[in-house]
Amino acid sequence: MRVPFFTPELTDDDVAAVSAALRSGWITAGPRVEAFECAFAERLGTRHAVAVNSCTAALHLANVLLNLGPGDEVIVPSLTFAATVNAVRFTGATPVFADITGPDDWCLDPCHVAALITPRTRAVVAMHYAGHPCDMTALAEICARHGIVLYEDAAHGLGGSLDGLPLGTLGMIGCFSFFSNKGMTTAEGGMLVTDDDDFAARARRLRSHGQTATAIDREKGARGYEIAEIGFNYRMDDLRAALGLSQLARFNAMQIARRHLMRRYEERLSALRQIRLPHYGRRGVAADYLLPVLVERGDRDALRARLADTGVQTSVHYPPVHLFAPYRQDRPSLPHTERVAAQSFSLPLFPTMRDEQVDYVCDALARIFAEVQAA
Ligand SMILES: Cc1ncc(COP(=O)(O)O)c(C=O)c1O
Which of 4, 62, 252, 367 is most enclosed, with most CB atoms within 10 A? Predict the structure, then answer.
């Protein structure tokens, strides 16, 4: 591909950090995991950050911390990656799908969320689509009124903020992903952040089988351990944490690069009437993680195929979760989600992308639209 959809930025510093971890002889959860958690909590201004091996693990732990189970309902978006919803199902609770607000705001619609609340509703999951802040003020007000919990799938959110507060710190719990194509990476990895001391202590136990002391605690002098409750193996290791520390130190620079590219795309693409750039209500500061566009005129899949022919790789975020096999039995009415999911796709965006590559993508789009119009 002449312009790949995404390439992670991996530098000599990253390689040196992972090599140093390997050479240290401590490769499972140890001092680098602790250091990564401290650095992440400090960046976000949260009391606690608990490193895990994926955002899916963090989302599952969030649901376990809320003691969700069969009979409970959790309101979720459908325009998200399946993990947001699967993690609710892991507990036996029922995900209830809410629509997005509309073509200019692809995050949860607070009015629809309010309409879906029942006596069984226990939580609402806000997913900051493409790094654009959800209307957390409205969602928090609804949740407070009904005595239910609001938590965040902030997989796209690192670097974004609302009213000066980082995304992921606006709900009871925030869950981040460090999968290879995220704003920063540990290859696979995730982080659960919270200000609640009890949640954090329990999340630390649950990520390691429910153990009251792990290998690093025993190294520091703890004797033996109890299994306080049945947990999981969701631990991050020191190799990933070393990469995470190195990437986090560079995160601002990577985000500045993404923002520069985003502005260049916006300037070039605003002239094309066949596609609509998402404005997302321009709430807060976006993380600028993805660049999805809505095809207003024409066939999305045909356009993607023609872009691929010119060497431009694109992606779709996302096929709606409520239409996947495990969820499609009671088909809810989500007109905005279905329209956006059917007509949107995401353009290449990654920190090492060059201006000429943005121009190449924009020229290719303009050429294809001109050819379609002439035909
Ligand atoms: C919105 C969203 N939530 C959750 C996840 C799951 O993240 P992970 O792969 O770290 O488990 C992803 C990953 O793509 C995502 O995009």
Answer: 62
**How many percent of the chain have pLDDT more than 90?**
92
Contacts of 180 (CB under 8 A, 6+ apart): 8, 187, 188
Going by C-alpha positions, the residue among 227, 222, 223 that lies closest to residue 212 is: 227
Find the Cα–Cα–Cα–Cα dihedral 225, 228, 234, 238, rounded to 10°.
-30
For residue 330, pLDDT over 90 is answered with no
CB 54 within 8 A of CB 262: no
**How far apart are alpha carbons 203 and 373 in whole angstroms?**
56
pTM: 0.97
Tokens of 238: 């020191």
Of 60, 128, 156, 182, which residue is the catalytic one? Answer: 182
CB atoms closer than 10 angstroms to residue 180 = 14
**Identity of residue 182:** K
Which two tokens mark 59? 């989302």
> Is the Cα dihedral 77, 82, 87, 91 positive or negative?
positive
d(CA 280, CA 278) in angstroms, rounded, equals 6
CB neighbour list of residue 250: distance below 8 Å, 6 or more residues apart: 9, 11, 13, 184
Q: Which residues contact 237 (CB under 8 A, 6 or more apart)?
A: 27, 28, 29, 33, 53
Site of tokens 């949740």: 143
**Cβ(177) to ligand 1 under 6 A?**
yes
**CA-to-CA distance for 109 and 119, rounded, in angstroms?**
20
**Residue 220 known to be catalytic:** no
pLDDT in tens, 140-173: 999 999 999 999 999 999 999 999 999 999 999 9
